[in-house]
């Protein structure tokens, strides 16, 4: 089973979007039993909160439900638990490495790196462009799924 953890700053916009997009993709391919997919935050400020209304809206438009999701924080133990820890931007990557104590096994990646891009996924908390974030998340998740 491949265990994947998506990470962003608050775990209410980008990382839950990626979590549920990838869950939807593997479900449509009939590969749900092959994956464990989750998401977390590098910060504590949103812990316990549901995904942002903009994230829920854009996912709902694509038939994806986030029911039951609450923001959680990345821990050092997550490094050992997951095969891949995928950040949404370079700032997330730095914080992920700080929290996990480094990346000796090469598990930490930028989502769009799977699409061959060294590009951040813009945080819609600031941009309010949930459609653009969704497009980048889908691109990254499709590329990730093709590579694993």
TrEMBL record:
Span of domain Phosphotyrosine protein phosphatase I? 2-147
Key words, A-Z: Hydrolase, Protein phosphatase
- State the EC number(s): 3.1.3.48
Q: Name the chemical reaction catalysed here.
A: O-phospho-L-tyrosyl-[protein] + H2O = L-tyrosyl-[protein] + phosphate
Signal peptide from the UniProt entry: none
Alphabetized SUPFAM superfamilies for the sequence: Phosphotyrosine protein phosphatases I
Q: Which domain of life is it from?
A: Bacteria
| Similarity comment: family membership | Belongs to the low molecular weight phosphotyrosine protein phosphatase family.
PANTHER family from the xrefs?
A: LOW MOLECULAR WEIGHT PHOSPHOTYROSINE PROTEIN PHOSPHATASE, LOW MOLECULAR WEIGHT PROTEIN TYROSINE PHOSPHATASE
Name this polypeptide is given: protein-tyrosine-phosphatase
Its source organism is Aequitasia blattaphilus
């Amino acid at each position: 089973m491949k265990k994947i953890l998506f990470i962003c700053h608050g775990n209410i916009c980008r990382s839950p979007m990626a979590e549920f997009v990838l869950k939807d993709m593997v479900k449509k391919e009939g590969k749900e039993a092959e994956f464990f997919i989750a998401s977390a935050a590098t910060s504590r400020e949103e812990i316990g909160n549901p995904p942002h209304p903009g994230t829920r809206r854009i996912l709902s438009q694509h038939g994806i439900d986030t029911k039951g999701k609450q923001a959680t924080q990345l821990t050092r133990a997550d490094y050992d638990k997951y095969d891949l820890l995928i950040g949404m931007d370079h700032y997330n990557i730095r914080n992920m490495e700080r929290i996990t104590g480094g990346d000796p096994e090469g598990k930490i990646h930028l989502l769009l790196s799977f699409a061959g891009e060294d590009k951040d996924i813009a945080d819609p908390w600031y941009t309010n462009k949930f459609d653009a974030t969704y497009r980048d998340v889908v691109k990254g998740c499709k590329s990730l799924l093709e590579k694993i």
